[in-house]
Structures are given as structure tokens and as C-alpha cells.
Amino acid sequence: xxxxxxxxxxxxxxxxxxxxxTLMSGAVLPAYDLTYETYGRLNADKxxxxxxxxxxxxxxxxxxRHRLDDKSPGWWDNMIGPGKPIDTNRxxxxxxxxxxxxxxxxxxxxxxxxxGKPYGxxxxxxxxxxxxxxxxxxxxxxxxxxxxxxxxxSLGGMQALRWSISFPERIRHSIVIASAPKLTAxxxxxxxxxxxxxxxxxxxxxxxFYEHHTVPxxxxxxxxxxxxxxxxxxxxxxxxxxxxxxxxxxxxxxxxEFEIESYLRFQGDRFSGTFDANTYLIMTKALDYFDPARHYxxxxxxxxxxxxxxxxxxxxxxxWRFSPARSKEIVKALLDAKKHVSYAEIESAHGHDAFLMxxxxxxxxxxxxxxxxxxxxxx
Length: 379
What we know:
By secondary structure, the protein is α/β, with parallel strands linked by helices. Helix content is about 35%, strand content about 15%.
């Protein structure tokens, strides 16, 4: 039975690019694939296209299901679909898996045509600016000269911000949700601990574990467990798990006793079975390196002076990984650069993950903003 307000069954597509891509590191990808999905219809003047940028562990599958028996829909299905805040009756929505990913786009697990083996440790680091450059080529491939909006949460928000700087003529609205202008030392520290868990796993083999027919699951599991703690708030975790015991009494050992331990181990196990360790390293490094002000005398407002987009910046009160104060830094820089920006701080107990949750005030805000964009497209 068809699900109401769903884009339904969707099929991923792949775009191949033979034009070499020079990365910020100086490395060159001679050719590459980008996997993407689309929902809705591109209008006659191609003015209603929305790009959805994914966060660290995200991918191109944003809405709908690949099969009727899929247990879960796309990762932002509560936001995207017919009648939803990003309404596919009005917009042509594109979800893309970034370079370096492990869900179809060229990445470390892809076969390197020069060696006939997976790239593994030979796959170069890819930064946010590189992803945006690759996405611009995907826009060309789809015949889209200008996005009505580029939307993203967390690492996706950084891409939305970068789009406004790298391609000011090709984006009308930049929607930056639960994000930051750059990482703090604490955030970089979290990322490095996660990376060390992977790098020191005996099954990692310097990044070439594919050739050893193994997977560094232990390291990836620990990395995900650590990351997951930072995606939740203390209040939210307390409300959901508190100090609940699985058996109802202390066992005085190191096996799982508290429900929160069970939850984190489940999340870590599930993630380590579906995600690529090298991709995790690349994505966290892209987070660490993101600093668009770096080439503008360390002034974000100078970096944003060339932007022509209008901005919506959204934060959540309980997000301590990218707190509202970090979003306000972006807002201040935009105001200093005399740009048009709207800002909202949403009351939420869900921590950093709040941008993925079904929250009425948040969704009402997004719906109202996107409705105005739809009116522009129809004008």
C-alpha cells in the first residue's frame, strides 16, 4: 500500500564524469562517479531545483524507499515529500552521495582502474569545497544552472554555506541547519579519538583492509559510539534511558548492564556493518579542515561578501556539538557582510540530531521558508 505523503519507490542513478577533478589537496581524480536520487519534477525554466547535502554518515537516499519491504525510508523522509516542508509537488529535489562516500559514489572502496584493486589508502582526502565543486558538475549534468536552494544539516550545512561562496551566481537560498563556521578544538578532538579507534584497529591494515578480506569493525564501532554520544543531549539521553538496567539489578561486571550501554553498542554494531572505515576518516577530516574564512584573512564576513544568496540559519537549544552560539557566528558574519539572513533557534531536547527529528515548530519554519521560495519559482 502506498504511503501517504511519500515520494514512494525510488531508484538511485549514477552520473559518470571523465573530466579530471583537481582537489584542494592538489591531488587529481581523473574520473569519478556520483550517485544521486531525484524526487519531484524539474519545471520548464529549471528554477525549482533543491540540492540536499548530507552529513557525515549520510548519502543520496534522502526520501522514499528503494523497495516495498525496506525497513526504513530515506534519512530525511520526514522533511521531503508531497505536502512536506520541502514539497516535492513544488520542487525538484536532488540528493547526492559525496565523493569519498561508500554508497555508490567514487570512494576508497571503489576499484582504482590503474591498479585493479580498491583505492583504499590511495584515495585522496576530499574537502567540503571539493564536494561543492563536484556537485556543481552534477548540476551541469542535470541541466540546472542555479539551485533554488541548497539545504543541509551539520556537515551538510557547511556545504550549503560553501556553495554561497564558491558559486554565488548558482544558488538563490542557502539553508544552514545545526552547523558551524568551523570546528572548535573540542570537536576536532572528538573526531581524532574516533579516527584513532579506526587507525589502531588491527584489521585496518593501513586503509587497505579490502585486500585482506576483513573490515576494521571494532574501530568503526567505537568511533560511531563516541560520535553518537555527541549527537544526543544529556537531557534527551536521560529522558530516554536514565539509569535503567537491563536486568533490573547490578551484575558487578563489564557486560552490558545499563540500557544506554546496550543502545550505543547496538548503534555501533549496526553502523560497522554498513559503513566504510576509510569514508569515516575522510568525512571527519573534511569537518576538521572546513574553515571558509581561512583564505579571507580569517574573516568569515569577508568570505561571505561575495555571496548573493539569501540565508536561513537554524540551530537547536540542546545541540552542544554545534551549539546555537556557533550558528550566531554565521549570522553575525552575514550581517557584517550586509547579507539577507533569517535565523531561528528551535527549542529541542534532541541535541545535534534534532535537525533530523519530526518537530512541529522546526518543520513549520522550514515549510514557511520553502513556501516563499516556491512562490519565487512560480513568479
